[in-house]
């Protein structure tokens, strides 16, 4: 999220001890948010879970929302690193196999952090947009664009790369989030197969 005076950390830790304290606060906040949601994650609970005083917590963060934003930015960094690595690892695979692997990786990573994902989507959308989540979306879009361009000769002749890129990222992103949060009675592998068929069918064209 774009910084504002009330939503930014009070200070940037420069010493190892300070960095460790901030890390403890963010780890504790992640646990409390996952267990109790946004409304139940008071600064008192976060400080207690981190094993520090309220005063120590307020040395680094002015309020709960600043902590939540730091936690969600950290979550976005984690997703960016993991998803970016997963996508880059599939670049040399046949395109249909690569597409399925990318979809599987995205849903699996969302499932691993479903509690934080729910907080972003359902409990604190008014805190957004988050800069790092937007950066994650741009990074994934760029990686998929490169993959589509590299494999352009294998797709249907009339494929519009820009339109396809938007359709894939928006449709897959929304459906993946809905799947993880709503938990419909669809096994993980079946969901990946259905999404892959949707994406591959659009790219390949249906005869």
List the helices and strands and how they pair.
Blueprint: H1 16-40, H2 43-50, H3 54-60, H4 64-89, H5 95-112, H6 114-123, H7 131-150, H8 161-182, H9 188-204
Helix pairs in contact: 1-2, 1-4, 1-6, 4-5, 4-7, 5-8, 5-9, 7-8, 8-9
Number of helices: 9
CATH class of the largest domain: Mainly Alpha
Could you name the CATH topology of the largest domain?
Tetracycline Repressor, domain 2
* Helix and strand element order: HHHHHHHHH
Strand content: under 5%
Cα distance spanning the termini = 45 Å
CATH superfamily descriptor of the largest domain = Tetracycline Repressor, domain 2
Main beta sheet: strand number and arrangement? none
Shape: elongated
Number of domains: 2
According to DSSP, the number of beta strands is 0
What is the rounded Rg? 20 Å
Low-confidence stretches: none
Structural class: mainly alpha
């Amino acid at each position: 999220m774009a910084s504002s005076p009330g939503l930014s950390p009070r200070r940037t830790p420069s010493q190892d001890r300070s960095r460790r304290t901030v890390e403890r606060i963010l780890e504790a906040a992640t646990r409390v948010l996952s267990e109790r949601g946004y409304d139940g994650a008071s600064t008192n609970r976060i400080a207690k879970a981190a094993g520090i005083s309220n005063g120590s917590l307020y040395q680094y963060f002015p309020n709960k929302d600043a902590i939540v934003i730091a936690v969600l930015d950290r979550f976005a960094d984690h997703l960016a690193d993991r998803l970016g690595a997963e996508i880059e690892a599939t670049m040399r695979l046949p395109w249909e196999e690569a597409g399925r692997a990318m979809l599987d990786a995205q849903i699996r990573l969302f499932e691993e952090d479903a509690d934080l994902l729910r907080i972003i989507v359902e409990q604190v959308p008014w805190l957004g947009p988050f800069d790092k989540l937007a950066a994650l979306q741009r990074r994934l879009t760029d990686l998929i664009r490169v993959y589509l361009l590299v494999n352009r000769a294998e797709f249907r002749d009339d494929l519009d790369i820009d339109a396809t890129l938007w359709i894939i990222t928006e449709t897959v992103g929304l459906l993946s989030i809905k799947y993880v949060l709503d938990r419909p009675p669809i096994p993980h592998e079946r969901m990946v197969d259905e999404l892959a068929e949707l994406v591959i069918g659009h790219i390949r064209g249906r005869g």
